[in-house]
Amino acid sequence: MNIFFQQVLNGLTLGSVYALVALGLTLVYGILHIPNFAHGAFYMVGAYVSFYAAGSYGLNFWAAMACAAAFVAVLSVLADRLVFHPLRHSPPLHDMIAAIGLLLFLEAVVQAIWGAEFHRMPAPYTTILRFADLTAPVSRLLIIGAAFVLMIALQVFLRRTTTGSTIVAMAQDREGASLVGIDPVKVSMLTFAISGALAAIAATLFAPINLIYPSMGHLVIMKAFVIIILGGMGSIPGAIVGGLLIGFAEAFGAFYISTAYKDIIAFLLLVAILSLRPQGLFPSEVR
Amino acid sequence: MSARPVAEYAFYALLVAGALVFPFLATNEYQVYVMALAFIWAIAAMGLNLIVGYTGQLNLAHAGFMAIGAYTTGLLTVDYGVPFWLALLLSGPVAAFLGFFAGILSLRLKTHFFSIFTLCVGYIVYLVIEKWDVVTHGTVGVIGIPAPSPIGPISFDSTRALYFMVLAFLVATIFFKRRLVRSLVGRSFMAIRNSDELAEALGINLMRTKVVAFMLSTFIAGLAGGLYAGFVRFLGPDLAREYHTFDMIAFVLVGGIGTLMGPVLGAISITWLTQSLQFLENYRMIVFGPMLILLVMFMPHGIIGTFGRWQARRREKQMRASRGAGRVGAEARAHG
């Protein structure tokens, strides 16, 4: 029973981190209409900034996370202004290649500053909770709790506030949104900021139980792509459901099938699902 | 360019002549080695250009197929004692065979769905090579791949001899691709790049043509991989990683996307550029990443594409000028 519970906990932990990354990606997809390959690099930069803020400046975990979120939000807005905005009339291929250029650049910069070696962020809380025969490390519960609070907050922001609605409106219909007086430049900057902050927060939450290194974003971003394809590009509930689905598939796959092949599970799942349903699991309204 | 075949053949002859004398002008063996490696990447990039540049599908699994070709040659020669040339002959077809299945699954998806799907396919190839160590030697890699066996009096134990071997394959690939892109098949690839709907309206079978393009592209990737195995003689699973695909995209883009010689020019110039940036080592991407971004912003057609456009514009201007002059002359005569 405890073993099964541990896998559920693992699945939820992985799933909520993936869902946060995928949420940022899906939001930006609504604006750019291309997958932002640089998003994984934002995730990686977020982890490094909080590692640095916590390690060198001795900030506590939450303050370091706030720093990272702010830093990556600015970085992400800069990427929009300097790279994606000037390319908005180019063919999608060019946007994608520019995103790849950005990814290579950020990785090289981080490697130049902090080196290629692995780092580990100290866990802020190390206690383990016990109920009957079930055990749960607080660090994991924290990831799950924080991720879900954030997802609910984001959902409320997008559905209940005017500013949030402009993002949804723009993702649904760019021209229509401009017609009713929504400023596309402002909305796209806001979306990039949120997306960057989400990536940084996800990276910081995951950092204490994971390693930090320059190419740490590759696998996460690829899984996030899998998630938004499965969940429907641009769909917010799709990103959350897809994230949890991949998280559980990995946790249970690693335990019941093979740890060596756990990273392949997400991709095989994608290949299997898209082979049967080329339109994805939940075809989105936004396309 | 077909209007002036003599100039074009002279241009190719000059290039081949240059490539033939290069090893004799090079000051050391290392330069010959770097150039030959650049040629191998050029062959692989030409394969990528076929699917990305001519057919308009951004395939991000290309390095995976190159690795499949390389491992075909490497494993067959090292573990099964198959002669090098037979193994090399098989590396293209094996990659294309697997490319067929990847193609029929992935090409049903359009634009970035296709790109992401192929990114995953590439990653699966990498993970399979890394984890399936009983067959692929896993992270240890394939060590001690034999040099190509001699053909008659020609032996391939020196870098220079290998250079000429690679050059021969490069020339053959260029020749093949030139024939291909000018054929009806090549034209239907370009029709698909311009618009799926338009191509379909012309009676092109979309799926079949795309799969053919994908298979040809993976065939060339596999061949380049086989050559890589015979040339470098060591293989690791990293060959399948996505950053090799990104490198090849840069080659295609810098040289000129959708042009015949673009990938070759790109592969050679970037290889030498990185050689000269050697002091930056792992940080070369700090220069390279922004360069890629600036290229798509300001020179999206690459060196050859930009040159071609400039030439076309000039020719058009000349034509307009001469036509204008002719009209003025005719009017003057009529009035006179």
Describe this structure in words.
- The complex is a heterodimer of chains A (287) and B (336).
- With 287 residues, chain A is mainly alpha-helical.
- Chain A has helices at 2-32, 39-56, 61-84, 92-114, 138-160, 162-172, 174-179, 184-206, 217-231, 236-256, 262-276; strands at 119-120, 128-131, 134-137, 211-212.
- In chain A, strand 2 (128-131) and strand 3 form a beta hairpin.
- Chain B is mostly helical.
- In chain B, 77% of the residues lie in helices and 1% in strands.
- Chain B is built from 14 helices and two strands; from the N terminus they run H-H-H-H-H-H-E-H-H-H-H-E-H-H-H-H.
- The longest helix of chain B is centred in the last third of the chain and has 34 residues, at 302-335.
- The interface between A and B is large, with 42 and 39 residues.
In short:
Chain A is mainly α and 287 residues long.
Tell me the Rg of chain A in angstroms: 19 Å
Derived from helix and strand composition plus strand pairing, the structural class of chain A reads: mainly alpha
Measured between the Cα atoms of the first and last residue of chain B, the distance is 40 Å
Structural class of chain B: mainly alpha
Strand order of the largest sheet of chain A: 1-4
Tertiary shape of chain B: globular
Please write the string of helix (H) and strand (E) elements of chain A: HHHHEEEHHHHEHHH
- The percent of residues in helical segments of chain B reads over 70%
Low-confidence stretches of chain B: none
Tell me the fraction of residues in β-strands of chain A, as a range.
under 5%
Shape by Cα distribution of chain A:
globular
